[in-house]
Amino acid sequence: MLVYRGFSQTAPTATVLTIGNFDGVHLGHRALLARLKAIAEQDNLLPAALTFEPHPREFFAPESAPARLSTLREKLELIADEGVAMAWVCRFNARFAALSAEEFIARLLIGSARVKHLIIGDDFCFGAGRRGNFAMLRAAGEEFGFQVEAMRSVTLAGQRVSSSAVRSALAAGQMEQAAGLLGRPYSIDGRVVHGNKLGRQFGFATANIRIKHDPPPLLGVFAVEVKGVNGLTLKGVANLGFRPSIDRVLRPLLEVHLLDFAGDIYGRHLNVRFVHKLRDEMKFPNFDALKAQIASDVEAAKNHFKL
Hints:
The strands form three sheets. A six-stranded parallel beta sheet has the order 1-4-3-2-5-6, sandwiched between helices. By secondary structure, it is α/β, with parallel strands linked by helices.
């Protein structure tokens, strides 16, 4: 997928375009992207997406912004997997927020995207003061020659599929519910870096994975599946949190013990899929108690995977 930063670059050909934050790329997003791909094939258009960095809520109210489900890299990889061939990542700052709805249409949709077909979510608003809406887009489409359609929300067991619903499920440790809303287990990507190697002293070597989620949408100890090692899918147990029993840290750490695996994986970029929550993170009175709990967590993960 070709990615442009900002909107100064113009699409090489006419596009079918969608616009959104796409945080988590859940079933609702995937239904929209499937429609995008179908229109692209039907009308010989380039399937494209326009998204924002940071999330607008992080710009307007950073203190109350929700935890991100996906980093920008993760999001772009996920929408590329759904068939999007080109993406514009627009820096959401004061200048961008001040764009009028009319400027948004003229500069982004008609100018940069060369849009011929626009697909949006049913709650999409745009432009300064969120003044732009579906009716304005429909009128612009009639004037400038592009079609506009709105996708209805996707529901699962009577619940509207949304990024907020996924966050709620993850925060509650309902990993199966979150996976249902996403259409896959929730995952976090990161690179393996050197840590303090305390896990080896406990008899359970861990891969310390540098993550950009701060705060992450979930905390605790989990049974996980890990991809990124020689094409394998490995089972493991992961702790995502602040290590209150050792040397409490300010930024969250993701530490993964791979079951029945030995090897040097420093520098690898791994994808960690959170399959089942084992327990909350907790503080232990001493190293012996912590070591015993880690052993128990490993057994619990093995039992979950029936190893």
